[in-house]
Write the structure tokens for this entry.
Amino acid sequence: MMNMIAPDQGKAEIDVSHAAGYLGSPVFIKATHSWGGRAEMAAADLGATLRLWPLVWTLSLLDIRLRYRGSLLGPFWLTLSTAVMVGSIGFLYSRLFHSNIAAYLPFLSISLVLWNFISTITAEGCICFTQSESMIRAMRMPLTLHAARVVVRNVLVLAHNIVVIVIVFAMFRTVPSLASFSVVPACALWLIDAMAVSLMLGVFGSRFRDIPPIIGSIVQIAFYLTPVMWSPAMLAHRGMGVVLVKWNPFFSLLEIIRGPLLGHSLETGTWFIALGYSVLLLALASFVFMRARARIAYWI
Amino acid sequence: MANLVVNGVCVSFPLYHGESRSLKKTVFAAASGRLGEDRKHRLVVEALRNVSFSLHSGDRLGFIGSNGAGKTTLLRAMAGIYEPVGGEIVIDGVVTALLDPGQGMNMDLTGYENIRLRGLFNGLSDLQIKQLQSDVADFAGLDQFLALPVRTYSSGMIVRLGFALATAIKPQILLMDEWILAGDASFLDKARNRLETMVRGAEILVLSSHSADIIMQWCNRVIWMDRGEIKADGPPEEVLSAYLSPEQFEQAKASAAVVA
């Protein structure tokens, strides 16, 4: 038992000098207005987040656990509520659209689960910095970590919802085509885009407090304009189809995952459009983050 | 070896959410005389103006100054939280900043979970995190509470947890705001003891306080901040005698001598 008055005499303390390198040691913080300097600081920030990966993972896991602390089903409420939604909307809309439920339900399950990911990433991305205010103001921490936390948390939610897709596919014996392997690079693209979106919206959301509701309504409108609940085939004979489907960034991104899984062949160009929008998004997000990184702590 | 260099640092806070510029201008100008405009003619409060000093191992620096003199802002800038708009800061060594009692802890998580997060932040292994948890539990004396959410703690308990956490992972540079001195007497003794061991290990301590006797006991160098600028920098006796009235200075000296 330690002496209460002098508890630390001769006690081996936990040495963290080996771990100091995650922020780079020594840390140089220089007021800079040059883009080279800004890019360097932003890259260092991202690098530190990658080195702190165990922290990002644990924070995300605790976020989910906290949300369902004390509940009986825990995170499986996510699975259940998605299943109920897919089931009820599926039966109703397959009647309304006069479509075959065996074809419609697999389509709907993937679409809704993926859209759910998009809408929560945009909503939670907007508040990724404002919500971590106490952490940001308490210690120097890479800021990209907060955006990464939103992405990882929502990937965990997505993982719970994928169960619904698997069950629907098993029920209707939908067999993904051989082309499904292209889902792997598509998911990688989604992860990168999700990171860029939450970083960019996080910056806007911390500077302008009106951003979260604005983004919320934009995503709501996009939900109705994008073939999520309705299949693009329904518009085939109408002129609007081209605009709503072909040049819709959400559609191309949805389609590179949804198409191969449903066994549809992708239209040529879908991948190019998805990649094109992603490059644009990435450039925009990098620009915004490099410009605003040093100011975020003042804004929140 | 730890070093901390602050070179020509300027920090200003933008004032975005205002309706009447002229009214605000008058009010703030009267209050502090520190209102400025940045390059784009936005209204800013200049919290720090051209602050320079450097610290080396063994330095125990105290900040004094009236409310709003820029002490806490300077601590935040030294911790790398507020990046300066001018000048540069070089931090060589592991920094821990005890700036507010919450310490960035998630109030809904338990004490143990918060300790684990801090351990991960410092790149500790699972084994070291276990060690950290037991170390913090011993020092803070909160054993059964650590399994409960932090929001159920009293403010004194949060201070103890925050302090134990910050010092258990052996920072080379410790930045402290005065709130830590709000603990009860027996805890203050323990805290002093722990800090002394730490500082003896040739590390850097930076303390901001309104209490002259605390500064006298703990510091070997004092910087007097006034309106965002350094007004005086030197040994405690010298700076404090200029800062305080003669009676206050004698009083502080006497009470510091009693504790020492």
In short: The longest strand of chain B covers residues 43-56.
